[in-house]
């Protein structure tokens, strides 16, 4: 039976198709692309959460944020890295991770909006980011192999699938339910009473609002849960290491440090404490995830050029050896003139020279073939130290403890290197696992590859701790005070100058050792107005701190610290 073709007229009504549902309209352009961007953000969150969860099953360092962040650090120009440390301090890693997340969020939103018109290409864009994450994870120096690619791969697949589904809810075209054609009940209908015309199939286009909201809400909840679970599992992975540190009782040192002289700490408000508490000690390294190494599983291999008796040591092997305890001030090469990246602690450890001698190592000055000691960390860092400096009689050590307790994880537990008189980037390998004897010509460590100097003895420097820059002290006697350091040489004199006046000698606090910093003070008879205070130190070799300003690159900053104050 065919549908009536009668022209409209009295009694001839046009047939209507009823679906029992309200008409659905596609979202306008103003709404469509923001919803696509939202879908992209949710897909990105799902990808990262999935990757975090999978990294808990592989290892935390395989997380794409950590892997990409590490790759970014490796490729950051030294000047940019120095700028980041100068402006963000020890929070530079947090800023980097937040920056990576912000960039990922922007790209995820853009891919989501793009996917509204190009659904498959948008999903492919998410997969591309997964490829980048896989490449970054596999390129890390501490990569554990192909399993490090799993978190990025799993996260990308999850994110691509979710984006494909969410965009599908925005652009769906669905068949509408069929319904009979209603016929008017009169003599012109062309049908018999009670008979229904056949159903007319149709399609309705629009977006599945309810489906999108349900899918988006479920994705957000699942991502939050997966991310939280992954974080928790990653945190629990280090529990054995935490337990090994908590169980550790450091043996008494066979060679104890002398008590800190009573006069080493000045009674002047604002001066840095002579011994820096562990929680306040500076931390500058490239590790986005602090390694947590179980001391019971830790091993150290000593091998290489001129090593006649290679050895692999356990942590217990070190505990059974003769230990020394020393006060040593460490300085980071990234420390600007007057900067905060210097600290003093009491270290306990194994003399490094003794270990090397037992392995048959001779310094170049005594005919040894190796002039560089390359220390490798569990996170892939490599640090090169001159063999002559390590074996010249200074208290270079494999440190096990810091200020009376086992090393904090942030500072290298279970074992790190400490060499007085050398900047950290050529001496202070944390989380050490390997020592190789080689030559400077044969191998460039991490920082040398990035245009830093091969050798870097700490420069003679001083700092004004009080008054602070732009302070407004009262007229009268104002105590100017601070610290000075020239490790392995010692500080002989500190002088202060007010504006362009003569240099006046400051009072030095008692000296602990040539390997520690030294406090100083100067009673200044302050007069009203603006003034510039400048300090300089002279070490025990007679070298006066230079006035020439240089950058931290390639071997440490130089210059004289000054502060501007206004006296009321």
Question: What can you tell me about this protein's structure?
Answer:
By secondary structure, this protein is α+β, with helices and mostly antiparallel strands. It has 11 helices and 22 strands. It has a 5-stranded mixed sheet with strand order 6-5-14-9-10. Strands 7, 8, 11, 12 and 13 form a 5-stranded antiparallel sheet that branches. Helix 1 runs parallel beside helix 7. The longest helix has 30 residues. The N terminus is likely disordered.
Which descriptors would you attach to this protein?
single chain, 568 residues, alpha+beta, 5-stranded mixed sheet, 11 helices, 30% helix, globular, disordered N terminus
Write a concise synopsis of the structure shown:
The protein is an alpha+beta fold.
Radius of gyration: 35 Å
Q: How are strands sequenced across the largest beta sheet?
A: 6-5-14-9-10
So what's the overall shape? Answer: globular
Percent of residues in helical segments? 25-40%
Q: Main beta sheet, described? A: 5 strands, mixed
Structural class, by secondary structure, is alpha+beta
Mean pLDDT: 88
**Unreliable sequence segments:** 1-24, 179-205
Measured between the Cα atoms of the first and last residue, the distance is 105 Å
Number of strands: 22
Number of helices: 11
Q: What percent strand?
A: 15-25%
């Amino acid at each position: 039976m065919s549908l009536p073709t009668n022209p409209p007229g009295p009694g001839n009504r046009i047939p209507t198709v009823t679906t029992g549902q309200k008409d659905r309209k596609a979202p306008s352009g103003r709404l469509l692309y923001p919803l696509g961007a939202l879908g992209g953000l949710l897909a990105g969150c799902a990808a990262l959460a999935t990757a975090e969860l999978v990294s808990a099953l592989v290892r935390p360092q395989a997380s794409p944020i950590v892997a990409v962040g590490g790759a970014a650090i490796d490729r950051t120009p030294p000047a940019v890295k120095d700028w980041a440390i100068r402006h963000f301090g020890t929070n530079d890693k947090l800023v980097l991770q937040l920056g990576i997340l912000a960039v990922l969020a922007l790209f995820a939103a853009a891919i989501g909006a793009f996917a509204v018109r190009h659904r498959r290409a948008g999903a492919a864009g998410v997969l591309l980011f997964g490829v980048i994450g896989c490449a970054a994870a596999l390129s890390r120096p501490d990569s554990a192999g192909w399993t490090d690619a799993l978190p990025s791969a799993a996260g990308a697949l999850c994110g691509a699938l979710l984006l494909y589904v969410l965009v599908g809810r925005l652009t769906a075209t669905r068949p509408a339910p069929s319904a009979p054609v209603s016929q008017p009940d009169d003599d012109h209908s062309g049908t018999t009473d009670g008979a229904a015309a056949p159903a007319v199939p149709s399609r309705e286009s629009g977006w599945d609002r309810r489906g999108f909201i349900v899918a988006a809400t479920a994705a957000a909840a699942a991502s939050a849960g997966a991310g939280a679970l992954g974080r928790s599992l990653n945190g629990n992975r280090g529990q054995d290491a935490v337990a090994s540190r908590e169980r550790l009782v450091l043996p008494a040192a066979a060679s104890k440090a002398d008590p800190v002289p009573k006069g080493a700490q000045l009674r002047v408000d604002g001066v840095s404490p002579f011994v820096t508490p562990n929680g306040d000690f500076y931390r500058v390294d490239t590790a986005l995830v602090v390694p947590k190494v179980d001391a019971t599983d830790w091993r150290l291999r000593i091998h290489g050029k001129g090593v006649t008796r290679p050895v692999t040591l356990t942590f217990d092997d070190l505990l059974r050896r003769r230990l020394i305890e020393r006060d040593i001030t460490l300085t980071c090469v990234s420390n600007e003139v007057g900067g905060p990246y210097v600290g003093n602690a009491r270290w306990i450890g194994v003399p490094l020279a003794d270990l090397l001698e037992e392995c048959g190592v001779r310094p170049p000055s005594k005919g040894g073939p190796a002039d560089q000691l390359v220390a490798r960390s569990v996170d892939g860092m490599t640090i090169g130290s001159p063999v002559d400096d390590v074996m010249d009689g200074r208290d270079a050590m494999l440190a096990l403890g810091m200020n009376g307790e086992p090393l904090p994880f942030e500072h290298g537990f279970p074992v790190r290197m400490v060499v007085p008189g050398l900047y950290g980037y050529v001496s202070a390998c944390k989380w050490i696992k390997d020592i190789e004897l080689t030559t400077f010509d044969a191998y460039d460590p991490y920082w040398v590859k990035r245009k830093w100097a091969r050798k870097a003895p700490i420069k003679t420097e001083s700092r004004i701790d009080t008054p602070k820059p732009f302070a407004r002290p009262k007229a009268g006697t104002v105590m100017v005070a601070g610290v000075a350091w020239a490790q392995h040489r010692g500080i002989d004199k500190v002088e202060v100058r007010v504006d362009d006046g003569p240099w006046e000698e400051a009072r030095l606090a008692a000296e602990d050792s040539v390997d520690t910093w030294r406090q100083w003070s100067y009673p200044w008879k302050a007069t009203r107005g603006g003034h510039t205070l400048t300090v300089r130190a002279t070490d025990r070799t007679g070298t006066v701190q230079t006035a020439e300003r240089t950058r931290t690159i390639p071997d440490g900053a130089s210059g004289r610290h000054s502060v501007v104050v206004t006296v009321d």
